[in-house]
Structure formats: C-alpha cells, structure tokens
Design a protein that fits this description.
The protein is of the alpha+beta class and about 550 residues long. It has 19 helices and 18 strands. The longest helix has about 35 residues.
Length: about 550
C-alpha cells in the first residue's frame, strides 16, 4: 500500500490532469460561446431553443435565460420567423446544411433595420445526428451599409458629372440656373430644387428657377423679403446651411410654413448658401418627399452643389458683364473696343483653367484632403496668379500697335513654360481625347523673354490647336535651336488654313471663315496679340499649314546667353 501510495503521484496525477482538462475544455467552450461575436444557437426537433449564446440572444432581443426552452417562433422578431422557419424545417426534413444565406429584419433593440448572414446545419455526435439543428448568424449590417453608401456616392458622382458638364456649357445666368434646377435635384435624389438669389440691394429674395414646386406656390413665393420666415431667406441672410429632416423640424423652426410644406409634399429639405468671395448671394434648396436623416456625406455633397452653383453663377455673371461691356464698347471708339476685346479674349483661357480645376475639386472626385486635391489646388493658384498678371498688364496690351507695352525680360526655362501651359489646357486636351507630345523639346533650353508674355503666347497657340483639332487628333510641341535663336513649333492635325488666308489670321479681329475661326468661340485677337508680343521680345511668330491636314506655328525667340 505504501509502495502504491509512493507510486501514486504519476498515475493519480494523470487522472486528475485529464479530468481538469475535460472540465477546463467545457469552461473554455462555454466562454467561447458567450464571447463569440456571432450568434450561435441549438434548436431541438420541436424548434425549441436548447442552447443559445449572448450574441444570438441579442438578435432576438432578450436575455439568454429568457430564451432557453422557448419556441423559436415566439422568440423571432416580427417578419423574421418565416425566413427562420423555412431554414430550420428544411434542415430537419433533409438533414442537409444551408450555408451563407443573407436576410434582413428590424433591429430588436433599436430603430432601424439590420442585415445578417446565416448557416443552419444538423448537429451530429460521432457521426450520428442528434436530431437538433445548429444555427450561426453573423451581423453584416456595417458591411451592407458601407456598400450602400458607396453605391450612393458613386451615383451622386455620376450625376454630379452631368451637372458639371451642363454648367461648363452654360454661358448665362439663366442657363446656369436651368442646369442646376434640372440636374441638382437628380444628383441628390430630391423631389424638387429651387435657386433663389438676393436682390441688388440685398433686401429681397427672388426665385429664379424651381422644379417640383406647384405652380401656384411658385407664383406666390416668386419674391419675398430677406427677413421672411422661410428656409431660403434664413440661409441667404445668414450664409449658414439648414437641414430640415422631418415635419417636426419644420414645426420647430418654421411653424408658419409647416402646413404649406406638408401640403406640397415636402417632408425634408436641404438648403445651402450660394457664397461668392465670402458673401451670400442666395440659396439653393432641395426638397424630399419623405423624412430623412442627412448623413455627413449628403450634407457635404449638398454644400458642394451650392459652391458649384455659386461659382457657375459668378462665372456667368462675369461673362454677361463682359459681353455687355464689349457691346457698349462697340459703339465707342476703336481703342476702347480693342481694349475690351483683348481683355475678353486673354482672360478666357486662365478662367477656363481655373473653372475646370475648381469644378474637379468641388465635385469631390479625389476624396477629402488627398494629394490629388493639393495638386489641383496648386494648379488653380498658379492659374489665378497668371490671371492677375494679365489684369495688371491689360492696359499695356492696348498699346501694342504703338510698342508701348512694358516687357520684363529674364532667362526663362522653356520646360517650365511648357509645363505651365500643359497644366492649364489639360482638361481641354483630355475632353477631346487628343494625343499631346512635348518629348521633342530639350529641358535644357532657355530663352530671353518676359515669362508672363511667353506663357500667354504659348497658351494662345495651344488653345487654338485644341480648338481646331478634331477629337482623337494629335498636338505636338517640338523645339529647335541654333547659336542665337530658339524655335518652338506647335503642330496640330487640325483643319488647316488655306494659302491665301495665312497672313490674314494675324490681323486683329479677322476671322477667316466660320469653320476655321468659329466666331462664337473668340474675337480673332489671339494670334494678332501673340505675334505682336513675340516681335516685342525680339522674336517672331509664323505659320505653315495645309488645308485639311493641320498647321504648324513657329515661335522664334532670342536664346539666353550661357
């Protein structure tokens, strides 16, 4: 006995260890079931819950103890039992598993809908079916919501592109408002859209465009005071956005109009300011037929639509002002006419560049605070600087004929100048799917020139090449140099110029044929100004062309001394 007792440590220890391990495994198994982030349950043949973990009980909206022994039918949230019963009975009848089927239903613990993916299977011990059914459910609500947000964002992006194209084509305030009213509502899946602007004295609001608003209501509210108790006047007055998500919001903020909003079927509204240089010029309103909670993405997108609309309206206003000024100038003396026409022509290219890149940024297609956005901002700033320089020098351009323009000469890198014009005209090149090549220009070449006027000439030449080259064509910039002169050749595969018209294109206000110069797109000043600027810098501008095959403009400038 003693010997056996002395020998006991090995054998009893082994028995105790095994027992402890079995008990420990059960404890671990229970802990695993309780802690698992997926719902797990065992249902007997009578569809009563025999075992269930916390995650599954949460799906059913009750505690674990409350679920045990109860019918799965009684425990299922409204609407979920038919789905659960079909799967459970199918497994009981066939003994075959059902894997990874998705379903959705009301959230048992809070408002809203949730989504799950489930597997139901027969439970076996040593290969023998015990008669019950196991179920594993995983909550995929976050994944589904993320996919829904991505689809909604993609849909908004696509529709915002349509709006952007319409705004780019708009040349008047009326065109801008019509485009915003038509496409703005679609971009946000709204039932209606209105654009309201402040009067010149700032005391009134005027509806200039409306969609989805009853005719009698639109007529009644065509014009009202800036301090009227309306969402549009509040936003236009304060410059602050306003999001009304339900009838309760309407009753709380605008009780006088809550009844009218209900009558016209507006249950939710997003109203954002139209801001220009920090000042509110009006408001953009979007109306929805059902109450809704605006997500951060939707609020941000609505603000983007407002900024896009405001910029387009300001651009249209400037174009309208420019056209009006040019019309008045036509009745004045020739100097004033030439001055205004020059300003109109030379400001259009940088304005187009600014507008193109600004619209890309405002549409949010690069995402928030990305490197791409910073690059676009940098391009916008460079275009703006160039525009300011043109404004400062516009009076000097009027004096081209008398050679009184001031030139600030320096050593200019040709590569830097070509990079600038490539960035400024990039959107137009991409829009027409043109092949653009500057590989035949050495990055080492420098010229003695005025940097701003060199960029101005290159912008004119490249813009003309883009304008008169059909979609899918080619534009190439090549460079050559000898001891004293650098030559920049801008070649295109465009429509070409007839022999008897080559020199006429360098005359001010001359448009050689409607097909050639497309008078609706310019004033006929670009090439005349470019040649005068080239000659003022000690160079020249010449052209070689074959009608129907393309043109080659050659800009000659003095080579910078080593």
């Amino acid at each position: 006995m003693i010997r056996r007792a002395e020998a006991a440590p090995a054998s009893p220890k082994r028995v105790i260890t095994m027992s402890t391990t079995d008990e420990g495994s059960l404890v671990l198994l229970e802990a695993l079931l309780a802690s698992a982030p997926v719902g797990i349950a065992f249902v007997d043949r009578d569809l009563r819950v025999a075992r269930i973990n916390v995650a599954m009980a949460n799906v059913l909206g009750c505690a674990v103890e409350e679920c045990l022994g109860r019918s799965a039918r009684d425990l299922s949230p409204p609407g979920l039992w038919p789905i659960a019963e079909f799967a459970l009975r199918r497994v009981l009848e066939t003994g075959e598993s059902i894997h990874d089927y998705e379903f959705s239903g009301p959230d048992a613990r809070r408002e809203g809908r949730r989504y799950w993916i489930a597997s139901v299977f027969p439970v076996r011990v040593n290969g023998a079916w015990v008669g019950g059914v196991g179920a594993v459910i995983r909550d995929i609500t976050a994944r589904v919501r993320a996919a829904e947000r991505e689809r909604a964002q993609a849909k908004r992006r696509e529709r915002s592109y349509v709006l952007a194209d319409a705004l780019v084509a708009a040349t008047s305030s009326r065109d801008v408002i019509a485009a915003v009213v038509e496409h703005g509502a679609a971009a946000m899946d709204a039932a209606g859209c209105v654009v309201a602007l402040r009067s010149h004295d700032g005391r009134r609001i005027e509806l200039l465009g409306a969609r989805g608003m009853p005719t009698d209501v639109e007529a009644e509210w065509r014009r009202f005071t800036i301090d009227a108790p309306t969402p549009l006047s509040y936003v236009a007055r304060t410059g602050m956005p306003l999001f009304l998500e339900s009838a309760d919001d309407w009753a709380r903020h605008f009780p006088e109009l809550s009844g009218l909003a209900a009558d016209v079927g507006h249950r939710a509204n997003a109203v954002v300011p139209l801001m220009v240089e920090g000042e509110s010029i009006g408001a953009l309103g979007l109306a929805f037929e059902h109450a809704r909670s605006f997500s951060d993405d939707e609020r941000s997108f609505a603000m983007t639509l407002g900024r896009q609309c405001a910029l387009a309206l300001e651009r249209a206003r400037l174009l309208e002002a420019e056209r009006a000024a040019r019309s008045e100038a036509d009745t004045a003396n020739q100097v004033k006419t030439q001055f205004l026409a020059t300003m109109s022509h030379e400001l259009r290219t940088p304005l187009n560049a600014i507008g193109g890149y600004a619209e890309l940024l405002e549409l949010g297609i690069h995402g928030p605070v990305t490197e791409a956005q910073r690059n676009v901002l940098s391009r916008i700033q460079r275009s703006q600087h160039h525009l300011l320089s043109l404004i400062n020098n516009v009076l000097n351009l009027v004096k081209l004929d008398t050679h009184h323009v001031r030139y600030d000469f320096s050593v200019v890198s040709l590569a830097a100048a070509l990079e600038f014009v490539a960035e400024a005209t990039g959107p137009q090149v991409q829009a027409k799917h043109l092949r653009y090549d500057t590989s035949a220009c050495s990055r080492e070449l420098t010229v003695r020139a005025d940097p701003e006027k060199l960029r101005q000439i290159l912008l004119n030449l490249l813009s003309n090449a883009i304008k008169f080259t059909d979609e899918g064509g080619a534009i190439a910039i090549a460079c050559s140099a000898d001891r004293g002169t650098v030559r920049i050749h801008v070649r295109d595969s465009g429509i070409g110029i007839a022999d008897d018209q080559r020199e006429r294109i360098f005359e001010p206000f001359v448009q050689v044929g409607r097909r050639l110069n497309r008078p609706m797109e310019g004033t006929g000043l670009g090439l005349a100004i470019s040649r005068e600027l080239a000659r003022g810098m000690g160079g020249d501008l010449e052209v070689e062309s074959t009608l129907g095959e393309g043109s080659s403009f050659t800009l000659s400038l003095p080579r910078a001394s080593a």
